[in-house]
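Readers of this paper often ask what the protein records in our data store actually look like. Below, we set out a record of this kind in full and without editing:
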Amino acid sequence: MIKQIEFRNWKSFSNATLYIDPLTVLIGTNSSGKSNALDGFQFLLRMAQGREINAALAGDAISSPIRGGVEWASLKSNSSFTINALIGGGTEQTDYEYSITVETQPEIQLIAESLNRIKYRPRTANNPYRINLYETDPARHEGPSITARFYNEKRGTSREVSRQRSVLSQLSGFNLRKEITEGVKIASQTLQNIFALDPIPLNMRNYSQLSENLQSDASNIAGMLAALKEDDRNKIEMALTDYVRHLPERDIRRIWSETVGRFRSDAMLYCEEEWVPGDNPVIMDARGMSDGTLRFIAIAAALLTRPEGSQLIIEEIDNGLHPSRVGILLRMLKEIGSKRAIDVLVTTHNPALLDALSPTMMPYVIIAHRDIKSGYSTLIPLEDIRDLPKLFARGTLGKLITEGSLEKSLIREAVN
């Protein structure tokens, strides 16, 4: 799992760290840096996938550009950026540090990259044992390649790799030591399991082809569910129904997907509703479902079908959901996320959702905030605000957000 992401000169960040928990709630005013932080995850995903750096930032025929493209990838007055990820190594005693530095001016190319293994000593996090599984030599501005040096207990075995893609994605087929191969596999799989979900109800209402993986806009949700093996599909549809049935004031008795047409290669999403007890249930397809219901189904489907160990990112998670139903949403995120080992990072402006957070969730709330002196974005854990006890004496977290009290407190701290 990803434990934290550090941004250096990335977009609006000079130096900031986002700590990741099983459920992380990122809040902040408009233009505070929330979306910029999420874009950093998207960049790491594309690097692990082996995309060329220019295409990862500027977009291509396969994917859209990261917001701002190449021009705004580096912090103003900087020509490069660095993103570091701390990744759990499968045991409590092992972590991996992945770091990538990219130049955006005058060329778009790799400057530096490294992967370190950290082994902690029993019963203490002090003085861990670290080895550089690989790191690049200082890069020359000219030339299409960079030298990567791989751990061999000496100076390292050197190999030339392309500067247009991440080193991490170029190691397939290399004859490497066991510890390097293991670290590369864990880091690569973890980053490739990042999934940003942005459900678009309009797209979800269409028939969709049978497919293996859910798309980021959830447009193929019907085809993805219908393509599952029968036992898996039945279990997932039962779980979907269990959570979705609590959304309306009456009962949704069933959510399911089935193939349609002569060739059975397309599918549609359906639900069965009972609004009046004793009356015949009403069967409705996705074209008649509300936006909020479709978004909720997409979130639940992602939680239920993404690989275990995934990082799920959802911006404005409660968009279209009635405030009285945010408790259902939070319960679903925590229950399914915990059961399937899926970490969830969400952003929200909704006071009702923030008020629904339990006291034990407060350490997992992060505030994106613009520093009043530098203008750079910062990422501050809610519990690090000095005046927090006094603020909570005045009202709930939702009330404090609505009044702008948290931002005012951060400004006072910066001034003083």
Remarks:
- The mean pLDDT is 93.
- The two ends are 38 Å apart (CA to CA).
- The chain has two domains: 2-193+342-415, 201-295.
- The CA atoms of residues 93 and 120 lie 5 Å apart.
